[in-house]
């Protein structure tokens, strides 16, 4: 089934206790689509500036990611610089230059409007709704959001939620949105706002799924080699959505298996800076780690 | 197989955002042994004061916990008062009166020295070593510890570790003891200090096991009804040790299954104040929740 992602494409400068990377390819849509490319050919919609090099275009091409939805505009590509703290669980943004992303209003290529699986990466709820308005008849729409939108555009977000099949957000954001102090109650409360299912991301502690089938909790895959957490959440989303898009079975078991795939690809992402580890992996390696993960969880 | 626990017996006054309990029965050995009583008849070694009421003695008796190792001394029973913060993940100790526990040097009844499974609940490493010195030939010894001992009696703790089969500690304590910033590396590092396996407790985020078989991670059972987290860690230990004591199969699968049982009983503990939920449960309910937990983790 066709899979569409609308999100950011960026240059990231990343400092962690394990090293530094300068102006590497990043952004939610980049992580998502490189992950998804190991499962299917994802349709990418995003914007870059005049400074975006052929080298990165080639990265997308090499991963079977069509470029029809990649808009190039006068100005600079979105730039982000961040520094992670010692425990790698929190970070400080050192610089942010939105560039061409600041006034980006995604316009889907006509041939993308029939996409069946849609991921609306983190952006304003109005922008996300604007993408949905362009879709013909999607089967499964999942959006990501963040504390900034919960605080500054809550009404627009609440209006968007009933239009979604799934919402992904961090644990702290779910507490903020729901006003709860317990994650389980928060997940149920956010689901009552409209989305058919809710996925709470807990970073190194894994994730929780709230759906018709109740609550499903997965731990993170315990990798000892955490170099750079950037993109873990978008990789997780890419693994989930790609797995759903290629898996034709009933939603129940699909969501759980998709969460497991998402967990495994996110654990790969953090093992090197930027997209490096994701580029240097294969479907075989992902499946191999999935099997190790499944064995780890059986008792 | 015989199971021994040496630990504290206390009166707890507990305030949480969900309510308050005054001078209820608490202490590591109480939680541990009431949990374990649903699986086997645990041998309890601890001390109480003259103020310890018949009602609590009856609680132990009703749970098939023999009282041979329950010492009664002049003075008051250990008293602790704590208040949990809004998210229930942290707490402030409001009062602590060690009473008869302050100078407690456990002396095992002669008939307990042949115990095969031994849990040394949190106390000074020297006290824990003193208990081990009294054992004939235990099969499996697990100890709990805490930041206070890591900071104040690190040498004694390091001397104890090679004598243990397993060590249980909180995630932050594992980071402190190892000097690592990543939990996976911390677990491996602590294990290299001597114990055959290490269990890292992560509270609402579950637990990790480090052993010859690699790393095994379990999420917490996602209960929405968290009333009082007191005793969750000791309940977890009680479920693990009791499960190991009654399960005759090879250690590999046993430890994982035991962790699952520990997780499930800990989730029951937090659903009511003090020991109330543990007293009002049954082996059938525990097994039922274990099955739900197993299904939750399969994909």
Structural notes for this entry:
Two copies of one chain form a homodimer. With 299 residues, chain A is of the alpha/beta class. Chain A has a single domain (3-297), classed as UDP-N-acetylmuramoyl-L-alanine:D-glutamate ligase (3-Layer(aba) Sandwich). Chain A contains eleven helices and 13 strands. Chain A has helices at 28-36, 54-62, 125-133, 147-152, 154-160, 171-178, 183-191, 232-246, 251-269, 276-279, 283-297, and strands spanning 3-6, 10-16, 19-26, 43-48, 70-72, 78-84, 91-97, 117-120, 140-144, 166-170, 197-201, 207-211, 214-218. In chain A, strands 5-4-1-8-9-10-11-12-13 form a nine-stranded mixed β-sheet, with helices on both faces. Chain A has a four-stranded mixed β-sheet with strand order 3-2-6-7. In chain A, a hairpin with a 6-residue loop joins strand 6 (78-84) and strand 7. In chain A, helix 1 runs parallel beside helix 8, helix 6 crosses helix 7 and helix 8 packs antiparallel against helix 9. The longest helix of chain A is centred in the C-terminal third of the chain and has 19 residues, at 251-269. Chain A is globular and about 50 Å long. Chain A starts with a strand and ends with a helix. Chains A and B meet through helix 7, strand 13, helix 9 and helix 11 of A and helix 7, strand 13, helix 9 and helix 11 of B.
* Total number of domains of chain A: 1
Strands of the biggest beta sheet of chain A: in what spatial order?
5-4-1-8-9-10-11-12-13
Percentage of helical residues of chain A?
Answer: 25-40%
Tell me the quaternary state.
homodimer
Mean pLDDT of chain A: 95
Describe the main β-sheet of chain A briefly. 9 strands, mixed
What fold name stands as the CATH topology of chain A?
UDP-N-acetylmuramoyl-L-alanine:D-glutamate ligase
Q: Secondary-structure element sequence of chain A?
A: EEEHEHEEEEHEHHEHHEEEHHHH
Distance between the termini of chain A: 34 Å
The structure class of chain A reads alpha/beta
- The CATH C-level class name of chain A: Alpha Beta
Q: Could you tell me the strand content of chain A as a percent range?
A: 15-25%
Task: Please state the overall shape of chain A, judged from the principal axes of the Cα atoms.
Answer: globular
Number of strands of chain A: 13
């Amino acid at each position: 089934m066709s899979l569409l992602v609308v999100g950011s494409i960026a240059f990231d400068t990343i400092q962690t206790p394990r090293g530094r990377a300068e102006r590497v390819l990043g952004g939610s849509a980049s992580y998502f689509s490189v992950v998804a490319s190991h499962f299917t050919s994802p349709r990418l919609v995003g914007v870059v500036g005049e400074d975006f090099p052929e080298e990165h275009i080639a990265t997308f091409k090499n991963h079977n990611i069509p470029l029809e939805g990649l808009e190039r505009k006068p100005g600079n590509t979105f730039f982000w610089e961040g520094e992670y703290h010692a425990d790698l669980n929190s970070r400080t943004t050192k610089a942010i230059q939105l560039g061409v992303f600041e006034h980006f209003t995604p316009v889907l290529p006509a041939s993308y409007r029939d996409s069946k699986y849609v991921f609306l990466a983190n952006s304003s709820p109005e922008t996300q709704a604007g993408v949905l308005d362009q879709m013909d008849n999607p089967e499964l729409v999942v959006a990501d959001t963040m504390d900034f939108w919960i605080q500054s555009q809550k009404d627009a977000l609440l209006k968007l939620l009933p239009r979604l099949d799934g919402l992904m957000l961090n644990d702290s954001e779910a507490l903020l949105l729901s006003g709860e102090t317990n994650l389980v109650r928060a997940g149920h409360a956010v689901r009552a706002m409209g989305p058919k299912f809710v996925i709470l991301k807990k970073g190194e502690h894994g994730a929780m799924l709230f759906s018709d089938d109740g609550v499903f909790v997965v731990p993170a895959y315990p990798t000892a080699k955490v170099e750079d957490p950037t993109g873990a959440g978008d990789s997780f989303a890419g693994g989930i959505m790609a797995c759903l898009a290629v898996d034709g079975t009933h939603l129940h078991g699909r969501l759980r298996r998709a969460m497991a795939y998402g967990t495994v690809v996110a654990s790969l992402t953090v093992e090197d800076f930027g997209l490096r580890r994701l580029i240097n992996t294969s479907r075989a390696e992902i499946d191999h780690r999935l099997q190790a993960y499944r064995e780890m969880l059986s008792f």
